[in-house]
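Weekly modeling sync, notes
Attendees: S.R. (lead), two postdocs, one rotation student

Agenda item 3: backlog of single-chain predictions. S.R. asked that every request posted to the team notebook include the full sequence so nobody has to chase files. The rotation student volunteered to paste the first one in as an example of the format we agreed on. Action items at the bottom.

Example entry:
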Amino acid sequence: MAKPTPAAANAAAASFAMLTAKLDYMSPADVDNVRRAYRFADEAHLGQLRNSGQPYITHPIAVAQQCAEWKLDAQALMAALLHDAIEDCGVTKPDLIERFGAPVADLVDGLTKLEKLEFNTREENQAESFRKMLLAMARDVRVILIKLADRTHNMRTLSDAPRAKWARIASETLDIYAPIAHRLGLNSTYRELQDLAFQHLHPWRYTTLEKALSRSRGRRRDVITRVQTEVEAAFAAANIPVQIDGREKTLYSIYSKMDQKHLSFAQVTDIYGFRVIVDGLTACYTAMGVLHQLYKPLPGRFKDYIAIPKINGYQSLHTTLVGPFGTNIEFQMRTEAMHVVAESGVAAHWLYKASPESDASQNLGTQWLQSLLDIQHETVDAAEFWDHVKIDLFPDAVYVFTPKSKIMAMPRGATIVDFAYAIHSDIGHRAVAAKVNGEQVPLRTELHNGDVIEIVTTPVSSPNPAWLGFVRTGKARSKIRHYLKTMALTESQDLGEKMLAQSLRAEGIDKLPEDDEKNRVLWEKILRFSGNRSRADLLTDVGLGKRIASIVAKRIVGLLGETGEKPNVLLMSRERFTEHESVSQGALLLDGSEGASIHFAKCCKPIPGDNVMGYLGRGEGLMVHTEDCAVAKRLLQRDSERFIAVDWSDEPVRAFETDLLVTVSNGKGVLARVAAAMASAEADITQVEIEQGSGQDATDLRFSVAVRDRVHLAAIMRNVKRAASVLRVQRVKSGI
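Predicted structure, as returned to the notebook:
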């Protein structure tokens, strides 16, 4: 490894001197601790160089300098200096705990990627690393602040890295780190990361736009100077002390506007803006009044983020005015405390601890961090967790109200179900209906600004898998998935218990041995045989088809035989030889309440009264087919040991869907007459299709209808046959 030159070593020492100059807010003891961490890091990174040729230690120092600008505490600055020590220098977490204490070591560990573990793909590694970092950040927000400072310095020096890496690192910054910075209210960092990523992702576009902006700046300098002079004079006349700061849109925000709205650079009019900082809350509104008297406001371009802060805690008044020569200029009015929060977000907790306004916005800015822990609790897979988080990084928001006038910020595109889960998981799980502004609406309805939402719940309802098709927030998605998985496993366990008990009866054993002290040794042997951790796991695997019930039953019979318990021959013969009777005593009874563990095949759509059989798919639960289904017949030839006896309960608890093909002669009102005939027989029509390619005189109509049983279906078909213009009615089974 190359030895650093004296000039490079001097540069590192100079940069550390610049860091210590920024630590005037710390006590001497804290400064000494930071210096200790610097010496340790300097020694650990000795001999390592950056791509630029500078000593590696210049990077941790730069990260610590950014953290010092946010006025983070000594522990955070120590972690910033040490953040690459575990990853790059072979230093262990116990080493850091011993030298600097557990809090610093935990921060460094939260920042350390998981490259020492083996993953199948780069994406899997990245997802797991992000999950680790985000969970550490949810426990301690300093983790992400240090990480953002680290990413910012890496982006500032990306030009020194090989060009082949630019696109990947810039895209990652644009897709992940910039949105996190925005979500946490660090707007200054957010804008810088976007511009740096744009510069390296699209260098030619960046350079072209930069030149265009530079030329425009020269042309519009007179306008901006005149506006600033007139605004300062107006506030002086009104006797309102203000700080006025002119600013330009960032290159990336100009490029995004041009790209999204298909504009040329000349068509982007609101490139320039002014920030007006005043002494107090009331002065913000007074300042806006002064400006509206000076220049005409653009209709629809006023936003009050003070009364209703943004989802990340940002507060300001925004108004766009028509200045001299028709130039659109945006003004932002805010207090000093709001300005600190606007630029530094959650970091303002350290910068501006005394401000009650800051504390109020902190609650908004950190709610997302708390929700990360909730999402993690519901999610096992790292990639799925990261999907949920990316959804919640979407920065735009709508503001809605509960019936008690509590305001809630939701991502744009969020639905009633998202709102229900945002209030409480139980409200989401039990939601059945909703009212928006007093009117009944479907649960998939999107929320709009100002909506007053009332959720109707019932204790017996549960999440619908179809909700996953339209929910917008990571919290709602993870809660629904977790509930459905839990319910599916519970139902599979119940099904497995029924199937194993049925197989045991066929072997002459009356019931499944209890999981008690008496049978403890027996169950230990069974679990060793099956490879499961617990009785519940084994039953779940049987229900999912991962274990065959008859094989497990034979093993249980053998083990019971070792203890002296013999099969009941009478029970065995009764169970094994009743399969041709009208009701098999060994069959699993179906009534429609089985839930996610039992599925009714789409190929033949069985209904009560049909002769049926059950196929135990591998890991898919039990699939019920009609006996004449061609799909089931093929499976029976290939995989007969996976079929089990099933039969219908005397009283099914719900309707079952089947298909009817109705051939009609063409004419006005035919579809309406057929539908009316079905309705009069109490049929629930779920879908209608008009078959393509039908003859000119006749048309095939395909109906999906929900029926109680075969008797009900026969009554429906008789009703339809009597309807005018109906030529033929038949039940359709695609698997036959």
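Discussion: group reviewed the output briefly. The chain has five domains: 6-156, 206-345, 362-479, 483-648, 656-732.
Action items: rotation student to repeat for the remaining queue; S.R. to check formatting next week.
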